[in-house]
């Protein structure tokens, strides 16, 4: 494949020149192909440990001029046939043109511009690779497919440098996590280790720390135990392995494949060097947690959440927590473990109103429902944006109910109105003559006929404020046995 030209100062350290002309050099990696001997073993070990691109592309073409000490990479190849095609193209299309130039700087500028043009033409019809570095991640995916014989449809989620313990000897190499497989490859001084494990065969995952295996991950399968250690970020790796193992179990139970959204939304500030597929998996986990926390339908997708307080009239307190917004529900979860959960179906909402701010109640927002219940939220960081979001969802909710008796009712988003605010706070879930504190609080159930309260919820989940991708997963957790063992 063609490469964006990059400088190479030492061109012959670990490479052997096979062809040359006044402007280009074709080279082969030492140890690849015929023989190799001790040099081949050392170079192969170095390529694996350093994750060199030469392991997947042992052939390359460099551009050079006679008086220059600097070389430029212009192409690489995984086979002799591939690199020969690039070499012949350069000889047939550029050699005669380059011989016309008088200045070596002009020659190099022309070659670099030509190669960039070829790459741009090839990438014109390709889909965007996401926000990660496309070249680096694509290179890792090519290594994985070539080394383990994976089909084109097998998607790489992420890869990590680590050690695999074979007996009492650690084998330094690379762990590749795909949608369906856990793969590991190591090559040290002629000793090769290659592992491929399907996620459906994994029966347990354990992260522990012992004297023999410091900060290691144990993978249990039906017939063996595998130990991996020396991760740069063991927590991130273990979390991703849990997600993929559970995802494989759910796919097996539901008899469905891994399907990505056709046009998944992207975050406003993309995260660099993170697989787009990994972000999708993280977003799925957040959606699943949201649905499980409030017992919502499996197709409900979290749009975002923000910190706020909720006024509870039965104990007359402002409870801090998180407000969650999705296409059909507004939910609240307090920070305390024994706090409250609140679920408001958007089809029950009649008024969303911004009240006047004060030092006691900054940025308040009231939400009224059909059964004359009003909920008061405050301390909202971006109240105007939140109101716009809720208004958009209310319009969509109204359009989904053409046959409803309340179809003529239009959910409204109002500016502060003192007389409305007075009516709202006096009638929170109680009759005209009852005190707000005497309201009966129903327990949370699966029915969604109206707003629903519950006590004894989950702690505040550590998520970011906006979910970047929406996916639906079954409300099933913990299919793969996991545990954490303290250091002994």
TrEMBL record:
Pfam families: GRAM. Gene3D superfamilies: Pleckstrin-homology domain (PH domain)/Phosphotyrosine-binding domain (PTB). Residues 142-209, 288-356 form the GRAM domain. This is TBC1 domain family member 9B. It comes from Myotis myotis (Greater mouse-eared bat).
């Amino acid at each position: 494949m063609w490469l964006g030209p990059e400088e190479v100062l030492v061109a012959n350290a670990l490479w052997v020149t096979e062809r040359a002309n006044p402007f280009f050099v074709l080279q082969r990696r030492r140890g690849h192909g015929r023989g190799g001997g001790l040099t081949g073993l050392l170079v192969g070990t170095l390529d694996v440990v350093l994750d060199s691109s030469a392991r997947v592309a042992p052939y390359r073409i460099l551009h050079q001029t006679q008086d220059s000490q600097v070389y430029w990479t212009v192409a690489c190849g995984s086979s002799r046939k591939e690199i020969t095609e690039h070499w012949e193209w350069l000889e047939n299309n550029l050699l005669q043109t380059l011989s016309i130039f008088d200045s070596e700087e002009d020659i190099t500028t022309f070659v670099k511009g030509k190669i960039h043009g070829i790459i741009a033409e090839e990438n014109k019809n390709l889909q965007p690779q996401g926000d990660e570095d496309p070249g680096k991640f694509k290179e890792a995916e090519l290594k994985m497919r070539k080394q383990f014989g994976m089909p084109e449809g097998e998607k790489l989620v992420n890869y990590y440098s680590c050690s695999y313990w074979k007996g009492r000897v650690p084998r330094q190499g690379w762990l590749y996590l795909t949608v369906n497989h856990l793969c590991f490859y190591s090559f040290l001084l002629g000793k090769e280790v290659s592992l491929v494990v399907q996620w459906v065969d994994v029966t347990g995952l354990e992260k522990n720390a012992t004297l023999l295996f410091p900060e290691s991950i144990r993978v249990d399968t039906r017939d063996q135990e595998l130990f991996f250690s020396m991760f740069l970020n063991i927590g991130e790796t273990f979390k991703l392995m849990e997600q993929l193992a559970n995802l494989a179990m759910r796919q097996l139970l539901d008899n469905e494949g891994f399907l990505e959204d056709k046009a998944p939304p992207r975050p406003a500030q993309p995260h660099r060097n993170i697989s787009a597929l990994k972000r999708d998996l993280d977003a799925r986990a957040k959606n699943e947690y949201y649905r499980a926390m409030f017992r919502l339908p499996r197709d409900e997708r979290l749009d975002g959440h923000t910190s706020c307080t909720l006024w509870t009239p039965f104990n007359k307190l402002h409870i801090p927590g998180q407000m969650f917004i999705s296409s059909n529900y507004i939910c609240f979860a307090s920070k305390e473990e024994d706090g409250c959960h609140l679920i408001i179906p958007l089809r029950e909402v009649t008024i969303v109103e911004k009240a006047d701010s004060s030092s006691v109640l900054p940025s308040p927002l009231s939400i009224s429902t059909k059964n004359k219940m009003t909920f008061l939220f405050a301390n909202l960081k971006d109240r105007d944006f939140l109101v716009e979001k809720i208004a958009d969802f209310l319009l969509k909710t109204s359009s989904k109910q053409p046959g409803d008796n309340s179809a003529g009712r239009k959910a409204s988003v109002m500016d502060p109105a003192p007389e409305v605010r007075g009516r709202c706070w006096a009638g929170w879930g109680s009759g005209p003559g009852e005190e707000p504190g005497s309201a009966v609080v129903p327990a949370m159930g699966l029915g969604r006929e109206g707003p629903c309260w519950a006590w004894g919820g989950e702690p505040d989940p550590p998520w970011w404020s906006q979910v970047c991708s929406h996916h639906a997963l079954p409300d099933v957790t913990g299919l793969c046995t996991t545990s954490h063992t303290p250091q002994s």
